[in-house]
């Protein structure tokens, strides 16, 4: 059973929805790879997930759908949707060296921005949708060396492009194009000088997938999410996707090949990678039958081993089903948070053992249940969860939760 365009349009037209099919909530979990850098502050996470130190903070404005990126010791929380349903250009910036927050601005307020890092130096805020849902080519760039903002442009305008930092090259992959009818196959590679080179996904159907990149090995995976089985037709047929693209960067050259199909196609999964293990967890599937489509949220976690190029035949399970979970790598761990109102607990996958950390009583937990929140990790050890919606989606929050796993 397909999900047709008019269904999505009616959702968008009726007002912005937090569970909009065309615009998945969790950009951050899908696009950000953990940050690591070479100097003395960039430390590995402490071994014991039970002793992560918690602290709170506040963004300058309560909001949801925030785009996040981490570069060097800094994290950026850009744009988003305010309580009064307008978009903001505000960027809250946290610097781990000083422990201080500051406020900056994008060149234009917009939604569905793709955020990520380039060459360990730049934070980019690419594309997005304007208030009429028109895709944008605008890219705001923050240079952590000069502390200055500039703007550049994508060849292909898109909303919610996925950003994969593959080390020496960052790939800007897919997104929402045209009038939201079509999914983009466009790929743009960006190198150290912010020059760009155009490429394209090699898979059969245009796909709006989950992107997970390992900047150390230069391997990235774009998979799951949904695809349009009738591109170019008047009515699209959006189906959950098993198409997988493997990105490989070696030196300054990048390539894409088609990988083995995602074992359990679904919408709304999130992913991250640590130690060469790529984990994709949560999401939802549509029930079959000819009544109204209904969804079942899942607890399944699929694992991909970059060394063998294989999906594991033994998927893991989260402690609760989670839809659009926040997923971040923290040291050797992959952390799943949110995506449920059943549990504040973090599910913590230890990539050294390939299993979840047990001891439910003592593992770290969110203080505030929220949807549409943003997550990012600084220096591969400081996990920050910010903003989102509280009170069953009624109110935007400014609250920030920080889980510090850095060795001091
Ligand atoms: C929405 O809220 C923001 C921040 O409180 C405010 O600056 C802006 O003027 C408001 N816009 C509208 C249209 O109410
Ligand atoms: C992948 O999905 C397609 C439908 O889009 C299906 O025909 C195919 O059997 C799937 N492949 C696997 C290995 O599940
Ligand atoms: C939630 O938002 C509404 C406006 O949408 C406001 O009237 C109400 O006071 C807010 N509640 C809290 C607890 O902030």
From TrEMBL:
Transmembrane segments: none annotated. Keywords: Kelch repeat, Repeat, Signal. Residues 1-22 form the signal peptide. It comes from the Eukaryota. PANTHER family: KELCH PROTEIN (PTHR24412), RING FINGER DOMAIN AND KELCH REPEAT-CONTAINING PROTEIN DDB_G0271372 (PTHR24412:SF489). This is Galactose oxidase. It comes from Coemansia umbellata.
